[in-house]
Design goal:
TIM Barrel, 8 strands, eight-stranded parallel beta barrel, alpha/beta, disordered N terminus, globular, 48% helix
Length: 416
Amino acid sequence: MRKIIFILFLLVVLVLLTLSVYFFLCEQTDRQQEDSSDKTSDLGDPIMDQLNAMSMEEKIGQLVIAGVEGYEFDAKAQALIEKYKIGGFVLFKKNIRDPEQMLELLNSLKKTNEVNSIPLFLAIDEEGGRISRLPDEFWKTPSSQKIAEINDSEFTFKLSSIVGERLKACGFNMNFAPVLDVNSNPNNPVIGDRSFSHDPSVVSIQGIQTMKGLRTQNIIPVAKHFPGHGDTVVDSHLDLPVLDHNLDRLYNLELIPFALAVENQIEVIMSAHILLPKLDPDNPASLSPNIISKVLREDLGFEGLVITDDLTMGAVLDNYDIREAAVQAIIAGSDIVLVCHDFQKEEAVLQALRQAVENGDISLKRIEQSVYKILKLKQKYNLTDEIVSAVDYRLFNQKLETLYRDYPGLSYLLEQ
């Protein structure tokens, strides 16, 4: 009898040991799956492999597009590339004198970036009309308002394709256009004829055609200025505009073009430095989680890159510390901060973002979410730092002349 009891005891112990081992192995498997899911659920994802191999400096650098301080490549631009691993540059009229000088500057930026494995965003504001940065040798293009007055979406597409083609020929890969602001206030000092129309349906149609035309030439379009800068009476370059609109008003007017752009897979949207107290009484749109993460991302379903308007504008500098503004922009849901002027401010922003990660104010996971999207977009558009030896501006002028001759309303542009 004792022998039988002993055997039964051994069997019970054996069963318990077997169950213990089983549950232990199950727990280990679950942990391994969770760990691998945390790193990436996409085994064999080359973008994630690239991200995982990046240093903290490289990750922070991708979150910033900076300006250049003159016509020539200098030690400050070199430091932004070599020390801070900057994600890209934007050029303005102050940086461009003639085609040869422009190419020399762009090529210097690219050549210096050979020390880094990630190509640069090279951006420009080439909206047409009064907002044009290309050298004077290039023919001018009409303003958005003039384009809409032609009332021909095929014309808009052809024109933006030529614009994209000449930007690509110069070495740019990103255009801060189209402007999707609805020009609902004739007293607006900053938008005006930069907007296609006071009618959101016209803005939507023309903006989407502009997007599509730029894409044919592998130029990344950037829709701006979310959630809409068309009803302001203050220029955000000088001070912070305040709009009393609620969300219903925005959905019925300002947000219509942006919602349709999202439906048409716009990859990048620029946020505006405007305060909407009924949505966020404390932060302008560019720094507001409620406007960027809630309205743009959750409500409109935008999954692409959000880039702030220039943080050196008066709307920000006169009301916020630029370092705190940059950190708040990322916390709010932006992926890239734009710092167009002053090397000291550019450097301060880069250092502040790194410090925010080290302090835990911004999680590393949050940074990596943005960097992943940035790398993915650069890969999608096949960005490179390839040198451009020369650009034939006469070729593009001829293409524009041919296009303009078909539209009597643009005859004034034939006198260039």
